[in-house]
Specification:
Lipocalin; alpha+beta; 2 domains; disordered N terminus; eight-stranded antiparallel beta barrel
């Protein structure tokens, strides 16, 4: 009888650990699919009246990177690129030149986590070109369709659409 109880308990524990592993595996499926380098293809903001704007041009350049250790970074720039400063020295731009360069670039890095059930990736920002992002958590609802990643947010202030293609 004691041997049967031990066998039953062992089988129950093994089953519990297997289920836990399966649950963890399912929860990490989207996170695993996100790992890689993604090229920015489209970056469109649409205001409530329906007017679309392209803050980084209609064909922006840049990358969104998720690594397998839970780190991420994003860099994007306007195309055509901001012209070089007239002085030829990046340390001596006019206020207008510096502002144009700042407005034409986005960059931040940190860690990330994925909510599998909600299809949301949250960027935990550790450093950023934009100081107000530092120390924040930026949640991004996303869809994956093979090698296409779409981050799309609808909010009272407008609709934000970001499309990335996996770099192979």
């Amino acid at each position: 009888m004691a041997r049967a109880a031990i066998l039953f308990l062992s089988a129950a524990l093994l089953s519990a650990f297997s289920a836990t592993d399966d649950d963890r595996s399912a929860a990490n499926r989207l996170a695993t699919q996100l790992v890689g380098t993604w090229q920015i293809v489209k970056f469109v903001d649409t205001d409530p009246s329906g007017k679309a704007t392209y803050p980084y041009g209609e064909h922006p350049a840049g990358f969104l990177i998720y690594d397998s250790t839970g780190h991420m970074s994003v860099q994007g720039m306007r195309v055509p690129a901001t012209p070089a400063f007239a002085s030829g020295d990046d340390e001596k731009g006019t206020e207008a030149e510096v502002r144009s360069a700042y407005d034409g670039y986005v960059a931040y890095f940190g860690t990330y986590r994925v909510d599998e059930n909600k299809s949301v990736v949250t960027h935990i920002v550790e450093g950023s070109l934009h100081p107000s992002y530092i120390g924040t958590e930026q949640s991004r609802p996303f869809k994956l369709n093979g090698d296409v990643l779409v981050i799309e947010i609808s909010a009272p202030e407008g609709h934000f659409y970001r499309e990335f293609h996996r770099v192979k």
